[in-house]
Amino acid sequence: MYISELNIHGFKSFAKKEKIKFGEGVTVIVGPNGCGKTNIVDAIRWVLGEQKYSVLRSNKMGDVIFNGADGLKPLSVCEATLTVHNNRGKLPVEYNDIEIGRRVYRNGDSEYFLNRTPCRLKDIHDLFIDTGMGADAYSVIELKMIEQILSETDDDRKRMFEEAAGINKYKKQRRSTLRKFDAVRQDLERVDDIAQEVEQKVNALNLQLKRFKRHEKLSDELKDTELSLAFIRVHDYEADIHPLRNRVVEFQHIKDEKASDTSQHEKELNGLKHIYSEQQKELNSLQITLREMENRREAARNNVLIWSEQDKAKEATIDRLNRETETNTEKKVQLRGQIENYENEISLLAPQVKQQLSKYKSKKSEFDAVEIRYKAAQKLLEKSQTDRWDAQRKMADDRSILDRTVSLVKEKNNTVSRLKEKIAHIDANQANQEKEQKELETKKTHLKKSTDKIQSQL
């Protein structure tokens, strides 16, 4: 795999469209200072997705666009296209020649192309990961980068060795897996919150239902008692009035028969009429009371209908909460599916661990060979020591890679175990909730039987 062609238009000092071809071997670009040799390297980095202005020797991304010169106007856009010959098949595509392009405008908008098809910067990074040709890889070595490699600081040197060892994709997979685990953990927390909220709502509705049924029972008993009392009082007054009416009739007959006793009978009659009038007034009052009681009974019946509708609405709310519980159960099943996917990822990482272990053993063998050459060739002491240090560093890096991969597998296994415990806890809470619901239904049935028994006794 090598760079076969670079097309530049409007990038830094290249105002006109330029095409630079590279052979499979070594290509040297020579020229006086300021002719644009370094700009060619910057263009290659820029096409591969370099985002740091300082690396491109600019203050902002718009500075890479040609800004004008003697006889040439400034441009509003710059574009570069890099052609890579994939003769060894290191890139995971089926094409022999791959064309990567980038275009930027003065307003800051950027466009990326892969074989002249618009794509994302992430697609380009994924294409060149662990190949050594990424924007941050070791394919472009500057003088200051050599100083960083030979310095005592480990970060930059470690990054290059990791790129050369091909473990960046594993790091990327690890970050992706951690993000998925965080998403699953947040989903579990939301499920717990929803379950607690549903449980609180169910408890509150059950308490309201108990209060409503007790109020309904007591109201019915009060209304029945008041109506019974009113009927008894009306019946008693009617029983008292009936004999008086008979006596009035008798006295009227006596008045007609005995005219001589008119005055005495009239007095008695007036007295009876007065008594009858008082009784009639009291009877009218009782009838008014009876009508009021009937009106109150009718209003009570309307209230019972309203309360029944409210009861139905509350039962509908309970049904909705039960459906939400079923939805949470479905989410729990989905979480189990995600756990199975993570377990599959762990099983897929196991061969990679074996591969890294094999690579580590191979590097150790190389180190042993260097040790033998070091003892056998004293005249080449400096070269042998350099090889020995390189082999030690590579072996340490490979060992570190192996340790991190094993740690990642253990961490995933631990996370899966915690997720399973969390799901078991959710199952237990749901079982308790269903048990409490059954107990409430049983208490409701007992209360209904007790109410029916009291009403039958009344």
Summarize the structure.
The protein has 7 helices and 6 strands. With 458 residues, the protein is of the alpha+beta class. Strands 2-1-3-4-5-6 form a 6-stranded antiparallel sheet.
Task: Name its key features.
single chain; 458 residues; alpha+beta; Rossmann fold; 6-stranded antiparallel sheet; 7 helices; 6 strands; 8% strand
- Reading the helices and strands in chain order gives EEHEEEEHHHHHH
- Helical residues, percent: 55-70%
Strand content range:
5-15%
Number of domains: 2
Q: Please, how many helices? A: 7
Which ranges are low-confidence, i.e. pLDDT below 50, for 5 or more consecutive residues?
none
Adjacency order of strands in the biggest sheet? 2-1-3-4-5-6
Mean pLDDT across the residues is 72
Structural class: alpha+beta
Largest sheet: 6 strands, antiparallel
Shape descriptor reads elongated
What separation lies between the terminal Cα atoms? Answer: 99 Å
How many E-type strands? Answer: 6
Supply Rg: 48 Å
Describe the 3D structure.
The protein has 458 residues and is an alpha+beta fold. The protein has two domains: 2-140, Rossmann fold (3-Layer(aba) Sandwich), CATH 3.40.50; 173-457. The protein is built from seven helices and six strands; from the N terminus they run ββαββββαααααα. The protein has helices at residues 37-47, 121-128, 143-150, 155-165, 168-257, 262-376, 381-457, and strands spanning 2-9, 18-21, 77-85, 97-105, 110-114, 117-119. It has a six-stranded antiparallel beta sheet with strand order 2-1-3-4-5-6. The N and C termini lie far apart (99 Å).
